[in-house]
Amino acid sequence: MKKTVFALVCLGLGAVAGMGSAQAQSNVQVYGIATAGLGYVDKVVTAPGQTGSRLGLDSGQYTQSRLGFRGTEDLGGGLKASFVIEGGLTLDNGASGQGGATFGRRTTIGLEGAYGDLQLGRRKDYSDFIARQYSSASRMLQFTGKAHGNNLDRSTGERANNMVYYTSPKLAGLELNLVYAFGEVAGSTSTGQSLGLGANYDTGGPFALGFAYWQSKKGATVGATNSSSDQGSASNAGCNTATLGAAGDTCVQSLMVGGRYRVGAGVTLHGTWSLARQPLINAGAGVAPAFATSFSQNAGSGAFTAGGINNSRVSIIDAGLDYSIGSWLLKAGLIHSRFEFVRARDKGTLTAPLLGADYILSKRTLVYGTLGTMRASHMYSPGLTANGAPGLDNHQNALGLGVLHRF
């Protein structure tokens, strides 16, 4: 009898241990970020010839608010299956981000093992990884995208659909990346196709260096409907103007190189240089902007705008410094962009000095403040933030104050 009872107890313990082992093999998490704050922008165009300041409650100043689900399963032999389903949202009105797509930030499934990490689905490319490591984009997001050529260099993150995304295992600190996104057009592999590659060297020491390259090909249609795998191409005139090129032609190319150096005592220097081209841009639109009524025009479409109809090329320098002391992170950055316009007499420039400070309240919560200014020269200003471009002035100032919580 005692032997029988002992056997049953052992069997029960073995079953419990087996359940624990099975649970340890699979892991699913719900996670997210909630962030919002007060935003002030001066000199926003209100009507032709009129300008006014704007004060409001803005979501996504520090980074975009989001809700996501991610999980991994241990398949044995060092192989894991993984998935990420993530949607962006705006806290001030509860709307979905990414044009209303419920899970527009990322939807991927993949396998990870000794040979690297392979992911399939919709996500950002490696340009975003390099920018987050080394540029001002992840440090003072709200004031960086417009200054980076209306995000032509993908510094604040652009997504592509139908993506195959491969990252190699790290070898002596070196990681390689390769991306291919299908255009999915019958009879033409190049129509709407995108591809990218990159590498990053980071051993965890004071020095790190990386680069990313990206190119997109024109989709089958242009205008309001973006049929390219590259969803960011909708904001580029070179990819969405019917009279420029044909489906399958390369319409945007970008290269970003970045690095950092930890000086010591909490000080880190970082920076990126990027170059973006719109190869299909071939026609001029006058020799200079017409500033008689306004210093602003819709970026990515009009003449003499960032990413616009005659903007063939832009080069961008983004240099910054982080200083960590106690619960404070103090940040400074300078973004300078130079724009080439077809047959124009001058190059356009955007210059944006930035200052920021984070105060860490806990492991998950911080408060922040960001101050920025931008001046445009020989081109229309895209505005420092998404809340409006300046009207009768080529100079704009903005301030953001808010709170961020991670869960």
Please explain how this structure is put together.
With 407 residues, the chain is mainly β. The protein has a single domain (26-406), classed as Porin (Beta Barrel). 8% of the residues lie in helices and 50% in strands. It is built from 2 helices and 17 strands. It has a 16-stranded antiparallel barrel. Strand 1 (26-47) and strand 2 form a beta hairpin. The longest helix has 24 residues, at 2-25. The chain is globular and about 70 Å long. Residues 1-24 form the signal peptide. Its main location: membrane. Residues 16-376 form the Porin domain.
Order of helices and strands: HEEEEEEHEEEEEEEEEEE
Average pLDDT level: 91
Q: Give the uncertain stretches in residue-range form.
A: 1-24
Category by helix and strand content:
mainly beta
Radius of gyration: 24 Å
Measure the end-to-end span. 52 Å
Strands, count: 17
Subcellular location: Cell outer membrane
Keywords: Cell outer membrane, Ion transport, Membrane, Porin, Signal, Transmembrane, Transmembrane beta strand, Transport
GO cellular component, one term: pore complex
InterPro entries: Gram-neg_bact_OMP, Gram_neg_porin_domain, Porin_dom_sf, Porin_Gram-ve, Porin_Neis
